[in-house]
């Protein structure tokens, strides 16, 4: 597997990632920027460690756990921790599939924050990617298993943060309908006047509060450059407030 080295958060983090296949993008950074007020955090599909290492940099006293079913990506995540002098912090990676019985029985009611960027396509309705890494990150036959796993891992009243395609929000809301509340929808608008393609969502376990649609964030100006707020978030100068 060929790898490249890239910098994020205004150069504060350097990360190795696969040259081909699924590569992290601004959605991972925006998801990271939506997370606050936690002690123990677990990420499903942690990849090369973009979100967890960004959190470790910002909250060095927190406990972080990454679940990733591809051992090669875990190796890169651990390498990235050393690269950024974060390997002495409380960060652990486990090579597990969140749908396996082993994972479903472990670490339950242990975290006050779950983070995930779940697959959003069903392989029966779209062309299947031939690239293994893209396939694993984008396609899921039963997306409900991700939400069930998140519910089980969270402590009572813990929070789930995830990012989802806006045109599939009906699926996300169906998965959240019974056991979740205090749901915040934060749309990401490509440009002013353009429809949202992705939405950051925060939900609270066992809450009965209503759904709130927030103003969201416009990512680009008309000339294609980042808006000031988006640029500040990508450069770790401010964060997304979902409270």
Overall description:
This protein has eight helices and eleven strands. The chain has helices at residues 26-33, 50-58, 71-83, 101-105, 132-138, 144-153, 169-176, 228-234, and strands at 3-8, 13-18, 40-44, 63-68, 91-95, 111-116, 154-165, 180-191, 198-205, 212-213, 217-220. The model is unreliable at 123-129 and 131-139 (pLDDT under 50). The termini are far apart. The chain is globular and about 40 Å long. The protein has one domain (3-234): Rossmann fold (3-Layer(aba) Sandwich).
Write out key terms for the chains shown:
243 residues; Rossmann fold; single chain; 8 helices; 9-stranded mixed sheet; two-stranded antiparallel sheet; globular; alpha/beta; 28% helix
| Mean of residue pLDDT values | 91
Going by helix content, strand content and strand pairing, the class is alpha/beta
State the helicity in percent bands. 25-40%
Compressed to H and E, one letter per element, the order equals: EEHEHEHEHEHHEHEEEEH
How many domains? The number is: 1
């Amino acid at each position: 597997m060929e790898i490249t080295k890239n910098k994020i958060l205004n150069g504060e983090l350097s990360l190795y990632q696969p040259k081909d296949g699924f590569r992290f993008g601004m959605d991972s950074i925006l998801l990271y920027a939506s997370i606050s007020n936690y002690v123990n955090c677990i990420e499903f599909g942690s990849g090369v460690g973009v979100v967890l290492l960004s959190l470790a940099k910002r909250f060095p006293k927190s406990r972080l756990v990454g679940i990733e079913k591809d051992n090669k990506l875990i190796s890169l995540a651990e390498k990235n921790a050393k690269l950024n002098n974060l390997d002495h912090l409380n960060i652990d990676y486990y090579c597990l599939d969140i749908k396996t019985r082993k994972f479903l029985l472990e670490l339950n009611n242990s975290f006050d924050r779950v983070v995930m960027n779940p697959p959003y396509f069903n392989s029966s309705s779209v062309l299947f990617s031939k690239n293994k890494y893209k396939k694993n990150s984008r396609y899921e036959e039963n997306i409900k298993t991700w939400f069930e796993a998140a519910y089980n891992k969270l402590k009572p009243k813990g929070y789930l943060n995830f990012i989802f395609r806006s045109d599939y929000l009906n699926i996300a809301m169906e998965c959240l309908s019974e056991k979740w509340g205090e749901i915040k929808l934060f749309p990401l608008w490509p440009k002013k006047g353009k429809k949202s393609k992705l939405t950051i969502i925060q939900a609270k376990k066992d809450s009965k509060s209503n759904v709130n649609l927030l103003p969201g964030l416009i990512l680009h100006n008309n000339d294609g450059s980042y808006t000031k707020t988006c640029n500040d978030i990508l450069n770790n100068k401010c964060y997304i407030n979902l409270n």
